[in-house]
Amino acid sequence: ILSNLFALRVPPTPGGVSLMQNLSNQVQERWANPQWLVDLHTLSIRRRSDGRSR
């Protein structure tokens, strides 16, 4: 579903296709790496703590 949405946003050019392929590969690598989820979780916690201090 996401790939279809991205395909609609990016113009149908060879450069756009390669760009989306690289982006999709990066997303797959990130989701395959649990460390990325850990970093995302820590960032959300930091944002919450910063909001409370202010």
Detailed description of the structure:
The protein is an all-alpha fold and 54 residues long. The chain has one domain. It has three helices and no strands. 0% of the residues are buried. The model has no long low-confidence stretch (mean pLDDT 70).
Summarize this structure briefly.
This protein has 54 residues and is mainly α.
Which structural class do you get from the secondary structure elements? mainly alpha
How many E-type strands?
A: 0
How large is the radius of gyration? 16 Å
Low-confidence segments, given as residue ranges, are none
Q: What general outline do the C-alpha atoms trace?
A: elongated
Strand content: under 5%
N-C termini distance: 39 Å
- H/E order of the elements? HHH
Q: Fraction of residues in helices?
A: over 70%
Number of domain units: 1
Which sheet architecture does the biggest sheet show? none
Based on the model shown, name its key terms:
3 helices, 54 residues, 87% helix, mainly alpha
